Amino acid sequence: MLYKLLEENIGEVDPVVDVVPYDTSYNTELHNDKTNKKLIFEYPTVYLIYDKLASNRSGSLSKFKVYVGETNDIQKRTRQHLKADTKTRTDWKALRSSSGAEMIVIGDRFFNKSLTLDIENKLMMYLLSADSVSQLNNRRTNPQRAYFMSDQFENIFGRVWQTLRAKKPDIFPDKKEIENSAVFKASPFHSLNKEQRESKSEIFEKIKAALRKQSDIATESGTTIFIAGQAGTGKTVLLSNLFYDLTSSDLVRKNSVYLLVNHEQQKTVYETIAHKLGLDHDYTDIVSKPTHFITEHTGKEKVDVVLVDEAHLLLTQGKMAYQGKNQLEDLLKLAKVVVIVFDKYQILTTEGYMDDAAVRKLEDAAEQQGNRIELTHQERMVADQSTIDWLRSFAIDGKISPIPDDSQYKLQIATSPEQLHAKIKALDGFKKSDGASLARVLATFDWPYVEKRKPKDDDCWRVKIGSWSLPWNLQIPLSRKEKRKNKGLAWAEQFQTINEVGSTFTIQGFDLNYAGVIIGPSVKYREGKLIFDKKASKNKKATNQRTWNNKKIDVSEELLRNELNVLLTRGVHGLYIYAVDEQLQQALLSAAGNQHILR
């Protein structure tokens, strides 16, 4: 009965938010709030200490450095920050020396210790993703599990954020804007599900054991920890969480943990996270591409741990700046432990190709050491299992069955590219009127695109179907001001890209709220199954032959299938499909019935 009353009253009373100077006058200022004295001084509280950073440009967005904490005694904790912490940490010394630094103290009658720890953690996650925050000076994460009132956490946090935004809108942006950002989706501060938590604990133990027995001898191969999982199973969040915790762990030597990803857009996201958390302070290339790491570390002492996201993009042959033969093998010579995130159905290019036997050998070797971990829980798509199974059967097995009904997930077939684009634009504008809302059009790479060159007969490279066309990704010209606005943003987050078409080269590794996928002429439907026509593809990285086991082989069918799989698994809440091949389009419309045709 008491709990029911508490639950009913949660939405009626706003949390207390006091803003005071961050200096020795803080105590007097807090005591001035006589109405809420008990909540501030006798209950657990969450607090933020922040300072505005100097700007080089007039009219630019204000930037802040922020510390988030929680405490059972705000007076004692603040004294500690002002006195003891300034002796050991330069960031605290700078905050105390600043005349403009302020402290926000948050109190609420529903707060308990576990709840304040969760609010601290979630504030860190949201502020890390806010454009207004350049530095987040925190050193720990404390996600909680079940506790009294934990089922009301989202309601309470929502009220806290709303109240903070009302007080300081220049620091606290719209909540939905943050949730749509690529940095938010890859944040190390996400609460892990049970499978991820258990995997993380297991990986830490395996790293500990491997570091104990590994030597610095360059010829000795490092230990591989293999994280398997299909698209959307939370591999990136787990890796990001591991990365953050390892950088502050006694398990590894200082400056001996690196995160690598062979994808420019994803690298930018990780660089932003590392920079805001100050992880790149001592070594700026803590996040880099594999080729850079290999070049920089060859001939040097082994590092302790290398984490590789999207390891299915590692090269298995030489290419331009990379003169080796296999990047994973090279990394294992340069690190004591290499943790890889791998999905064979996301291998996209001949230069990173591995056949099934090679993948099995890699997995089996890890399995024999007890070092293979698989994530199976779908974290991206808010969909019934029947929808997930339908998409996998379509993309991987090439079969089309009736589209299942799903109250959570919109899966519809468009009747034209114009209709598909109009729907995506409407969804994008519906969520957020002033910019990208992570609804975008994507396509298989079946129309010409040459980087750093313009076509002879058009203003830019375009996806063209009949009289309809849209520019390919990264083609719309931008002013200098617009380029500044887009700095550090993934392709899908940039405002102009609602009128572009994305490809696997800009969308792999990222989520969209809604994806509109144009399946080009390289994917056809004949005799009851999908076939892949490499002659209709412009993706030379998938259609060129490559040498494998001393033989020239054609792996285009496998790689074009994987391209389709990546595109179809981007949407969190919905997917809209249009196929250029007439027989495929008709088969999809038949599978849609009346319920799943876009009107």
Radius of gyration: 26 Å
Q: Do you know the CATH architecture of the largest domain?
A: 3-Layer(aba) Sandwich
Number of individual domains: 3
C-alpha end-to-end distance? 48 Å
Which parts are unreliable, with pLDDT below 50 for 5 consecutive residues or more?
Answer: none
Instruction: Please outline the major beta sheet.
Output: 6 strands, parallel
Helical amount among residues, as a percent range? 25-40%
What is the averaged pLDDT score?
92
Task: Tell the overall outline.
Answer: globular
CATH class of the largest domain: Alpha Beta
CATH topology of the largest domain: Rossmann fold
Domain GIY-YIG: 42-143
Protein name: DUF2075 domain-containing protein
Organism: Lactiplantibacillus pentosus (Lactobacillus pentosus)
Pfam families: GIY-YIG, SLFN-g3_helicase
Provide an overview of this structure.
By secondary structure, the chain is of the alpha/beta class. Helices cover 37% and strands 19% of the residues. It contains 23 helices and 22 strands. Strands 8-7-9-10-6-11 form a 6-stranded parallel beta sheet. A hairpin with a 2-residue loop joins strand 20 and strand 21. The longest helix is centred in the middle third of the chain and has 20 residues, at 194-213. It is globular and about 80 Å long. The mean pLDDT is 92. Residues 42-143 form the GIY-YIG domain. It holds the Pfam family SLFN-g3_helicase.
